[in-house]
């Protein structure tokens, strides 16, 4: 006579097990939901996501993956934003319309829904597929050929005590900062701010800049209430920084520490409330901080120099190396070397190679405490994962 099956775990015990699943790999929870009805019942409880985030209180949102364009010139060739998971499959749907990513922050993605010169902006939640098209800003916003932006949580009290935006769900309220200029000979940079609560844009802030300047589509850095965008001067002859002050609604520029190529530099928001910059010259990765000296003057200070071949353990010559992104919540720098992508953890010094090749000139890290919605009839797993080596 066959032995009776072991008794099922009570729901409280199942929940205690599932709460300990690493937040860096939400697909584990999706697979756990298929184990049996009782496990799915626990995961489908609307209380579970709140308990899960509370259990991992104190930890920053994990890096789930990053957004990149399916074509380097997506704004011209009709590409779309692609979500690339870091660990295993992530149940995120890709947009169904032509677009290019401009920013990922607080569970939201800012998309440029480019369709020639009449492109507009959208805020997209990858975890639900929902998106909201924004109205056009006054003063030439949709005609800006050179453009970038950021999307910010606008919750009055923040989403949690540690400002990790653990409870951001990708919806409202949010703000969008959009910057641009209309052409090569346009010597004026403009900035607008959109509020989802007011459903309107502010009048533009303006700043005279050099002719043939371009606001790059690399991810901006946010330090306090300042937003920093990468700016190339005189058709890429040198790199500068366009600074937007949210409190004063004012633009200004900052010189970069060295003459980096636009593809070889990213701006960074550092833990100590400072603006950072990572740049590559030749085979050397250089890290900088912008500090205030004893006379009250803001200056660049180089604090680290790293030989790329030693860091990345590359045993052959390479054609080019670019810094393509930075995830400040986890302190990870993304470096592209030819068709390879490496993740470099600044604090630990650990390096991980992502094995799937592909040229990337800029990527937008996506961090979020994500629990799949098990109340839906179907979970999507559209993208193959990058497997680290």
From TrEMBL:
**Pfam families recorded for this chain?**
Beta-prop_AT5G49610-like (PF23635), F-box (PF00646)
Task: List membrane-spanning regions.
Answer: none
F-box domain: residues covered: 8-49
**F-box protein AT5G49610-like beta-propeller domain residues:** 102-367
Q: What is this protein called?
A: F-box domain-containing protein
